[in-house]
Amino acid sequence: MPLGAAAAAILIVALILRILGARGELWLDELWSLKLIDEVVARHDLFWGLAVDNNHYLNTLYLYLVGADAPALVQRALSILLGCITVLVAGIAMRREGMAAMLSAMGLFAVAYPMVNYGSEARGYAGLILATLAGLLLTEAVATAQPSDRRRRATIALGAANAIGVLFQPVMLSGIVGMMGWTAWINRPADPTDWRGLRTTLATIGDRFSWTVRLLLPFAAIIAFSVLHADGYRIAGSAPFTAAGFVAGYGGLLRLLLGLPEAAPDWTALCIAAVALALACTLAHDGTRRGQHRRSLYLIFIVGLPAAMFVARLPNIYFPRYYLASGTVFLLLLADLFAWSWRRGSATRALAVVTILAIAAGNMAENAHLLRDGRDQSAAVMRLVASAGPTLVTSDQDARDTPVVEFFARRLSLPVTYVKSSEICSRKPQWLVSSWSPAELGDTMETGDAGCRHVFHRVAAFPQWGLSGLPWSVYRAAP
Q1: 76 and 126, same structural domain?
Q2: 217 vs 130, 152, 165, 207, 383, CA distance in Å?
Q3: Which residue of 107, 122, 370, 392 has the smallest Cβ count within 10 Å?
């Protein structure tokens, strides 16, 4: 099959998966951006009043333009477009390694469940992934460009890609740090004790990322002004660092990228990734200068960045999405290994084909789950609550659940009114919903104070799975 036809077929598959994955209603993290827009429009500070970690600036701007009442597919259309472009750019990133590398990279990015999930929801992670790939391509282009004018154009393009990535998701900053580390490795002096050479390396990094800094300065000023304007940068939720959280976050992302079943422990994915990295750095290393560049890229992004996050003991480290820069490079590593195996001959080629088909099959099983059940059951919860007619509903956590109830009551025209937990005694709601894990909750929940006791019995539970969505428990007031 000609390269163009094969690439087109993969892009069509990627588009279909993302369109199908974009069906269903929004979930909390998507509709939270709409809530932020409503807040700042009401205060007339649209640009300055979004100092909150769930604000992904360019994605929020897109949602503002299409509107809160647009169909979910339209609200997710930008992510679908960016996700499909990412598949194409992945092939371009591996073009020098041959057709097998290009097609395998495109195929992996097309069907990998994390890429499909983030490429079909109204958040900024599709833009982050694309900007990371573009930044890696441009970092290498800057390092190898010979004429000064060509290098300058590549430097400006790199700055633009990095700035756009940060505007989609500030987690892009970790990827930029990785690109700086990769640039330092490529331009390192032969003698580590050569202080003049080290100063030259630092100057090279400053030159290569000068436009990145220039373009990010206005963004930094906006954030600083927003923080002062809003009396601090708001973080919706924070969980302390734990080693188990790191394994669940990074190992969980790698497990999904490898297509391993849910029953497989997350640490097994870390072990498989270590073996794949060792193979790529030894067997698949061709000894050329470009081969050395690829090896350093894999080491910095797959080992260095996660290790830095671990050593820094960052909070919320259990979220797989915070390791997307490393996951993006890991898929490139798998494509590199496949291309090396393809060149080796029949036996190795057959093993490589079986392996990549197994990875694709595992990811398609996860995608089938997404297409069958959706990423969240918030709409089903609200329809259940509203099934008996006009009603009042409360929650055990106002801040997180109020936006969901109010959004779907308006969007689906449901006769549901939210009651704050402080008003339970006076308004006596008939329902209570909770987005904590059903396993952490009992079949009965009591609310109120000493002089006002209300008992709710659980009537339904909607477990959460995958990378998005919330678990829900629905309680009804006891007679």
Answers
A1: yes
A2: 22, 19, 14, 16, 46
A3: 392
Q: Which residues contact 120 (CB under 8 A, 6 or more apart)?
A: 17, 18, 19, 20, 21, 22, 76, 79, 80, 83
- Give the DSSP letter string of 101-155: HHHHHHHHHHH-HHHHHHTTSSSSHHHHHHHHHHHHHHHHHHHH--SHHHHHHHH
Last residue of a domain, one of 373, 401, 419: 373
Question: Are the C-beta atoms of residues 245 and 239 closer than 8 Å to each other?
Answer: yes
Give the range of the structural domain holding residue 468, as residue numbers without chain letter: 378-477
* Longest distance between any two alpha carbons in the chain, whole Å: 80
Which pLDDT tens digit goes with each residue over 223-257? 777 777 766 666 666 789 999 999 999 999 999 99
Shared domain for 275 and 252, answered yes or no, is yes
Q: Is the pLDDT of residue 49 over 90?
A: no
Number of domains in the chain: 2
Q: Are 34 and 107 in contact (CB under 8 A)?
A: no
Overall pTM > 0.85: yes
Name the percent of the chain in helix, strand, coil, to the closest 5.
65, 10, 25
User: How many residues belong to the chain?
Assistant: 479
